[in-house]
């Protein structure tokens, strides 16, 4: 359940009550440099670190954490560090099911996990969605809907997007579904954020317009 929690320092600012953020980078290396202090602080505070990464990237990320002085073997053994691949997390059986993922994140939330860790810091790499257009459409809707989960928990959730892999229209929609945003390695309250119910209403209207007979869409 949502409780009063101390703000979390993150890239020049703080995550306060709203802790669902999108972060845009131009490379995986840039993303790791920015996110590393956030994860190091989480280890020091006793929070759980959940890292959802691209397939084949687990050992690379472990190496980076070890290089930064984190005892990853001990952290994995005691449950403080957990790695999942984004295809396993989001594309079980090869498809993206929004309702299933809402249930997954609800279970990962520290308030429901029965965990001895006070909070979870969840970093999700979203590259998986860039490969199939239908995945992007579903993801945009999901990012709006999942705010209902995170507004009831104190966990910090950073959704990482590689700007080289997503088009401008998608980036704009992603920005509009996150109350916090990281641009230029600075965290700020997102001026483009729309309340989920408003964004989803607009999205439905857009989808109806695209299906109108005789209408040409670009």
Textual characterization of the structure:
The chain has 218 residues and is α/β, with parallel strands linked by helices. It contains nine helices and nine strands. It has helices spanning 28-45, 58-67, 72-77, 86-90, 98-108, 133-145, 147-150, 168-176, 196-211; strands spanning 8-10, 13-15, 20-25, 48-53, 81-85, 120-125, 156-162, 180-183, 186-189. The protein has a seven-stranded mixed beta sheet, sandwiched between helices. Strands 1-2 form a two-stranded antiparallel sheet. A hairpin with a 2-residue loop joins strand 1 (8-10) and strand 2. Helix 6 runs parallel beside helix 8 (168-176).
Query: How are the strands ordered across the major sheet?
Result: 5-4-6-7-3-8-9
Net shape: globular
Radius of gyration: 17 Å
Topology, number of strands: 9
Tell me the strand percentage band: 15-25%
SSE pattern, N- to C-terminal: EEEHEHHEHHEHHEHEEH
Structural class: alpha/beta
Question: Helices and strands in order, then pairings?
Answer:
Elements: E1 8-10, E2 13-15, E3 20-25, H1 28-45, E4 48-53, H2 58-67, H3 72-77, E5 81-85, H4 86-90, H5 98-108, E6 120-125, H6 133-145, H7 147-150, E7 156-162, H8 168-176, E8 180-183, E9 186-189, H9 196-211
Parallel strand pairs: 3-7, 3-8, 4-5, 4-6, 6-7
Antiparallel strand pairs: 1-2, 8-9
Helix pairs in contact: 6-8
TL;DR?
The chain is of the alpha/beta class and 218 residues long. 42% of the residues lie in helices and 20% in strands.
Observed structural traits:
seven-stranded mixed β-sheet; globular; 218 residues; two-stranded antiparallel sheet; alpha/beta
């Amino acid at each position: 359940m949502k409780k009063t929690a101390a703000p979390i320092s993150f890239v020049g600012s703080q995550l306060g009550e709203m802790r669902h953020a999108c972060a845009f980078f131009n490379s995986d290396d840039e993303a790791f440099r920015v996110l590393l202090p956030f994860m190091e602080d989480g280890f020091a505070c006793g929070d759980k670190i959940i890292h959802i990464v691209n397939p084949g990237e687990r050992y690379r990320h472990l190496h980076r954490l070890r290089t930064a002085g984190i005892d990853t073997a001990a952290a994995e053994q005691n449950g403080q560090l957990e790695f999942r691949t984004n295809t396993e997390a989001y594309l079980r059986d090869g498809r993206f099911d929004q309702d299933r993922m809402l249930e997954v994140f609800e279970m990962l939330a520290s308030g429901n996990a029965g965990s001895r860790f006070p909070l979870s810091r969840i970093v999700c790499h979203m590259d998986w969605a860039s490969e199939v257009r239908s995945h992007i459409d579903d993801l945009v809707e999901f990012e709006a809907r999942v705010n209902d989960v995170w507004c009831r928990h104190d966990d910090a959730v950073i959704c990482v997007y590689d700007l080289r892999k997503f088009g401008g229209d998608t980036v704009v929609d992603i920005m509009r579904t996150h109350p916090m945003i990281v641009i230029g390695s600075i965290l700020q309250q997102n001026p483009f954020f729309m309340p989920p119910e408003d964004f989803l209403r607009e999205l439905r209207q857009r989808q109806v317009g695209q299906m109108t007979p005789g209408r040409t869409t670009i």
